[in-house]
Design goal:
Layout (H helix, E strand, L loop, with lengths): L18 E4 L4 H12 L4 E5 L7 H18 L3 E5 L5 H8 L4 E4 L6 H6 L1 H22 L3 E7 L23 H20 L2 E7 L2 E2 L8 H11 L2 E5 L5 E2 L2 E2 H14 L6 E6 L5 E2 H12 L4 E5 L14 H7 L7 H15 L1
Parallel strand pairs: 1-2, 1-4, 2-3, 4-5, 5-6, 6-11, 7-10, 8-13
Antiparallel strand pairs: 9-12
Length: 337
């Protein structure tokens, strides 16, 4: 339900100096960077353009960002660097007014195969960001966490007050550890921090390894899509524009000094796997062929966000239902192809 006195996001945000976005060439990062440029901010982007998926897609995202910066007459400065490169992170943070830390080794299943890589990127890399902020006196941070920290929590919807002591993948464990590191630097060095637990974000530029992207392409080619489990697992799919709006609200929230908070950014409307496929079929105008497979290790049974806190404190108000979001995504996918 809407609040009687909702928080309103005032753009441009009250932040002096450019805003650093780590992972700026990626899915959420590129959308956020363009939104900040349109809102009147200069942006510093940092991304290593790795080959976790095709770097050409990230180069396309960067080209669109540069075009937006030129159109808005704002400055976009890009560092091609890894967050494990301490010197590069320090250079990127220097002179910035706030940091949105999105860069990470992503994905539940790959983290089971490469846990040391995920620990190295997600923990050491986050420590480099935090230490660079301390060194440069930058005190405003938005940290990208994940709904995966809830594991197979039996209570739904998931609340920020729930215990997250039982992650079931290395990726989830690194995201919870990242929240703890952020709290430590908040306590010791007075950073104002918002940790955002993203719930299955989708939309244009989505990573090609994720289900919606894979299924859309495979259905279009007439290939059988792999579905794990019995189709009753559910996810709280959140359209990228809604997620970006939540990040903007968090950036405004951290402009007040001395804050630390954890917030769910979901759609509060879980969709089963069978329902997701049906939405893609409708948007594509084509029936899916299905190959049923056993559940995979690390996959959670459900995600469902309680967004009461984000509504109240960040002005977060997701507006794109799954049917509309899938129609938008499929239209973009068709145009991109």
């Amino acid at each position: 339900m809407p609040l009687s006195n909702p928080v309103r996001i005032h753009l441009p945000l009250p932040i002096s100096g450019p805003i650093l976005v780590t992972g700026a060439a990626g899915f959420i990062g590129s959308h956020l960077t363009e939104r900040l440029l349109r809102a009147g901010h200069d942006v510093v982007g940092l991304d290593n353009l790795n080959d976790f998926y095709d770097p050409v897609l990230k180069a396309q995202n960067l080209a669109e960002i540069h075009a937006t910066a030129a159109a808005m007459r704002r400055q976009f400065t890009f560092y091609q660097a890894d967050i494990r490169d301490q010197a590069a992170v320090l250079s990127a943070v220097t002179g910035c007014g706030a940091v949105v830390h999105l860069a990470a080794a992503a994905g539940v299943r790959p983290s089971i195969e490469q846990p040391l890589l995920y620990q190295d990127v997600n923990l050491r890399g986050t420590l480099h960001v935090l230490e660079a902020m301390r060194t440069c006196g930058v005190t405003r941070l938005v940290f990208a966490s994940s709904s995966s920290v809830y594991g197979n929590h039996p209570k739904v919807p998931f609340s920020e007050a729930d215990s997250v002591d039982h992650p079931i993948s290395p990726y989830a464990a690194t995201k919870k550890a990242g929240e703890l590191l952020c709290h430590t630097w908040h306590h010791l060095h007075h950073l104002s921090v918002a940790c955002l637990r993203f719930f299955t974000v989708y939309g244009p530029r989505q990573r090609p390894d994720l289900a919606i992207s894979k299924f859309t392409g495979m259905i279009g080619r007439g290939e059988a899509i792999p579905l794990f489990g019995d189709g009753t697992t559910s996810r709280d799919y959140t359209y990228v524009d809604d997620t970006v709006q939540g990040v903007l609200g968090a950036l405004q929230w951290v402009t007040t000094e001395g804050r630390f908070g954890v917030f769910n950014l979901g759609n509060a409307a879980p969709v089963t796997l069978r329902e997701l496929v049906a939405h893609i079929e409708i948007a594509k105008g084509r029936k899916a062929q299905v190959e049923w497979l056993p559940m995979q290790a690390g996959d959670v049974e459900r995600t469902c966000a309680d967004i009461t806190l984000a509504r109240a404190q960040l002005g977060y108000d997701p507006a794109i239902p799954i049917a509309e979001g899938m129609a938008r995504y499929v239209a973009w996918h068709r145009q991109r192809r």
